[in-house]
Amino acid sequence: MQILGFDRADALRLLNFLKMGLRDRFLGSTLGLVWAIVNPLLMMGIFTFVFAFVFRSRLPGAETSLSFVIWLISGYGPWLAISDSLATSTGAVTGNSGLVKNLAFKTELLPIAGSLMGLVPLAVSTCYLVALLVLSGTRPSLSWLAILPVLVLQFVFITGIGLCLAAVNVFVRDTAMVLPNVLMILLFSSPIFYPLSEFPKVLQGVLQFHPFQVIAEGYRQPLLHRAWPAPWSLAYLAVLSAMAFLGGLVFFRKLKGYFDARI
Amino acid sequence: MSRSVVECRDLSKTFVLLDGQSIWPVILGGHFVKGFPAVRDVTLQVRQGEFLGVLGRNGAGKSTLLRTLGGVYAPTSGTVRVAGPLSAIYELGMAGNELLTGQDFASRWLALHGSGRRQVDRLLSEIAEFAELGEYFDNPIYTYSAGMKARLFFSVATSLPGQIYLIDEVLSVGDEHFQTKCWRRLRERLAAGASGILATHDWTSVLKLCREACVLERGRIVDRGSSPAVVQRYLGLPQPRGDAAAFAAHLPSAYCALAEEDTTLSIPIDVKVTSPVWFACSVESFRQGIGWSHLLQVEPRPVASTPGLYEVAVTIPTLPLSPGEYSLNLFLSERGAEGTFVPLDVRSWTYGNDLAFAVAGKPRESVSVLPLRWRGGRTQS
């Protein structure tokens, strides 16, 4: 059975690469995989401290800083996953040159596995968020499961971009180097640290279609407001993700025949 | 006619060096980039149970050919057909994190090559034992010496009982003791019906393992045929003329003798010229994984100088060879410039036409038996 040119053996191999990737990232350290949890937790703990106790930020019309922190983390958690996915998948082919040169397999699986590694910070941030929500008195609700379609679409979208970047990075190694800066720009141009309403009116109209805004709202609506994300936003994200994934896959497959001389 | 297990037709592989500028025309559909043709129009066929030798100098394209056959590289043109899963040893590389322990490396390698959990557990102890790493098996690889890394890699790469092998140079690693183990393992696989391709510059391995061979030069196959014939041409050994003098047509293809007995070998020669013809012979033995050893030798001596049929009798008193199979090599030559010998006719393993020499008797551990004579007696006291 083949989906988009992948069969069962490829799925198993993908799982293997995922396990390898997680293992290798923390190999040699004493705490090992525990760092996969501690790193994002530490980051979010720092933000919580800074925004709740130092800046004492509030959402427009809100009473406590805790609601702001919850709002922030609900946008920042997915962002952490996105930037982790993109950074890992961009270097997935160039960093695994030994495998590419000695094993016969579909090279696309490497960036896909790299992208899926973002699931770990996402899981950690979601648990942290749930803990904060419970702390602020919100009852857990079934509507929280509405983040699942958004989660899936987010990964499909990011994997598509990751495939593109991974292929380009083989020929233009600067890609991996400029990526952290680009991500930083994107972070501060997205409504993650400040709500959409704080942006100039001119930009608001455009920015509400920004994929990261749509993704962030997809998490905020179910978790903070117990509502399903707006249907148009889900449809928009679905179309965007499909296009990005298929485009990225085709792009990668076109270029992968030329990797041999550059790896 | 047994089926073919590896087959390729007009296979070509060109490496195209793209950089930032030149990827865009390629993405947009054009293919106007020059490349380096590593493999050109290669057609091969390997049958079940056989190993094909691919000889070539460095840079001839052997590794590229093997990787293209194995699916690591996609061919630029031509077809490849492989009848089953491959076991490929491409390079002696520890492709992986050096922080992994030997055991982790083995599990990871096996998992990447499709082994399930249970098979991995079963093979791990075999691998540890074969590689002779002892407690180092649980230590990170960065603590290993180069030899240990090579042994670990070889042990892991040959642990899966495969049927079709693609071997790039790495036939055996380590010291002589370990090399013997490697060869033994390969022979076990062969006995179980393994086939494959051995790409190497080491022609002695090809002579031992492969019945057929071919020569790759700058990406093209320039010669193919039976291994001894191909190797002889590959080495550029001067072909003996055979018209001035030759071994008679009724020369036996095998000789027998008894160990420790006086032996006479009768060798018929046919001389056609009036110049002196010299005769030399040697008895050699090939040991798997070690190579050819010269055991007995007769220096060249003149035997005839007029045309006719002769019988050269080589007498060896108390044949000092242990029972076994040996290779008898015969050389007919004439004197050339400055005391060299120009071969007229040769029967030698280097040409693939040596004679079998079977020695019978009580089996012994040693290769030769020294003709001792001793006598007991009292010393003067």
Task: Please characterize this protein's 3D structure.
Chain A is built from eleven helices and no strands. With 263 residues, chain A is mainly alpha-helical. Chain A has one domain (8-21, 29-261). In chain A, helix 2 (34-54) packs antiparallel against helix 3 (65-90). Chain A is globular and about 60 Å long. Chain A starts with 7 loop residues before the first helix and ends in an 8-residue tail after the last helix. Chain B is built from eight helices and 18 strands. Chain B is of the alpha/beta class. The mean pLDDT of chain B is 86. Chain B has two domains: 4-235, Rossmann fold (3-Layer(aba) Sandwich), CATH 3.40.50; 245-360, Coagulation Factor XIII, Chain A, domain 1 (Distorted Sandwich). In chain B, helix 3 crosses helix 4 and helix 3 runs parallel beside helix 5 (146-157). In chain B, the strands form four sheets. Chain B has a six-stranded mixed β-sheet, sandwiched between helices. In chain B, strands 11, 13, 14, 16, 17 and 18 form a six-stranded mixed β-sheet that branches. In chain B, strands 2-1-4 form a three-stranded antiparallel β-sheet, with helices on one face. The A-B interface holds A 9, 13, 16, 20, 24, 27-28, 98-104, 168, 171-172, 251, 254-255, 257-258, 260-262 and B 15-20, 23, 26-27, 35-36, 67, 70-74, 86, 88, 90-91, 93, 95-97, 99-100, 108, 111-114, 140.
Brief characterization of the structure:
The complex is a heterodimer of chains A (263) and B (381). Chain A has 263 residues and is mainly α.
Q: What is the ordering of alpha helices and beta strands of chain A?
A: HHHHHHHHHHH
Number of strands of chain B: 18
Order of helices and strands of chain B: EHEEHEEHHHEHEHEEHEEEEEEEEE
Gyration radius from CA atoms of chain B, angstroms: 27 Å
Task: Fill in the CATH topology of the largest domain in chain B.
Answer: Rossmann fold
What gross morphology of chain A would you assign? globular
Q: Mind telling me the C-alpha Rg of chain A? A: 19 Å
Domain count of chain A: 1
Helix content of chain A: 55-70%
Tell me the β content of chain B.
Answer: 35-45%
Low-pLDDT sequence parts of chain B: none
Largest interface: A-B, 25 and 33 residues
Distance between the termini of chain B: 78 Å
Q: What's the shape of chain B?
A: globular
Query: So, the CATH homologous superfamily of the largest domain in chain B?
Result: P-loop containing nucleotide triphosphate hydrolases
Q: pLDDT below 50 for ≥5 consecutive residues: which ranges of chain A?
A: none
